[in-house]
Amino acid sequence: MPDPVVINGRFLIQPFSGVQRYACEIVRALDRRPDAGERYLLVTPRGARPLSLTHIPTRVVGGGGGHVWEQTALAWAARGRRLLSLCGAGPVFHPRQWVVIHDAAVFRRPAHFRPGYALAHRLLDRQLARHARLATVSRFSRQELAATLHLDPANIAIAPNGADHLNAVTPDTTVIGALGLTDRPYFVVLGNLAPNKNIDTVLRAMDQTPDPALRLVLVGSRPSAVANGRPTPPDPRVIQAGRRSDAEVVALLRRARGLVFASLYEGFGIPPLEALAQGCPVIASDIDATREVCGDAALYFPPTDDAALAHHIRTLMAGPDPARREAGLRRANAYDWAASAAILDDWLSTTWR
After folding, report:
1. Which ranges of 45-166 does DSSP label H, i.e. alpha helix?
2. In this predicted model, what pLDDT tens digit does every residue of 70-89 receive, in sequence order?
3. Domains of the chain, start order
4. What are 117-155's pLDDT values in tens digits?
5. Which residues pair with 60 in a beta bridge?
6. Which residues contact 64 (CB under 8 A, 6 or more apart)?
7. How many Å apart are CA 163 and CA 275, to the nearest integer?
8. CA dist list (Å): 305 to 47, 116, 201, 232, 284
9. Terminal Cα distance for the chain, rounded
10. pTM flag (> 0.85)
């Protein structure tokens, strides 16, 4: 049997967002594949979060944990072996590397990032496009990466996100009372509060929905080290809930009138899929990635049209739509972490042996 594929474990020291969720769930799904313990090795920096794998061994390699660790310590640990990087970065000159780049936002929406971050990742993506095999998470993202990196889209694999990671979670309903939501209608915004998430449009829509009992729950952190942005203005009906556990998120989604996903640009967007999997209605910005993921299961609005968003909020306030709920569950069931891990597993096995 050839040497195991090295998995880049830098994601285990990074702030947790959708990209890190992807990496965690893909590695857990790879861990359940046949002979995973012989075929994969997870290499992490010191201080990494544990991932609780059953079969894939973990090796801790020192030397920091950021880009320098990736380009030096990880590159040295993976020398002569295949390397899988799941979060859009990796050693640029590694000769046999597979990299998942989730979107082309640093090219298409550079103003949403701190200038140094955007520039560094544009340069990194271009180098990886020259030296590595690429995958991404949606057909839309594949077209975007092909256009910005001057690649043939047929050479970019697609291994989507899943939503089944929340299916076995027992909801922690204490969060409902802790946030003052008992007997109140509320909507959830889920994800980091970066400028791309378009929270200003959601707040303007709330201004057009004057019900004093209504609440908007913002779940997530503000990634100040990566993104530009400004604080969310105070509003007595807006609850800034910060980061929450999966158990709390499940409880919030199952009781919510809906999830609002107002992003201006996404390569995929996990929160709408997570909401649909929990039977929670979704109001989503009408962009290509959310259309691809949600299909006919969501209500859509032009991303900066707060009046259209407010109309959909009032629609969901009026009562549930069982047919759309069933459509959402079917849509979510089409996305599965095990299936995506199988795509990557096959991709690794059939290219650059």
Report:
1. 67-69, 75-77, 105-108, 115-131, 139-149
2. 999 999 999 999 999 999 99
3. 5-162+336-350 (3.40.50.2000), 165-333 (3.40.50.2000)
4. 999 999 999 999 999 999 999 999 999 999 999 999 999
5. 44
6. 45, 73
7. 9
8. 44, 31, 7, 19, 12
9. 12
10. yes
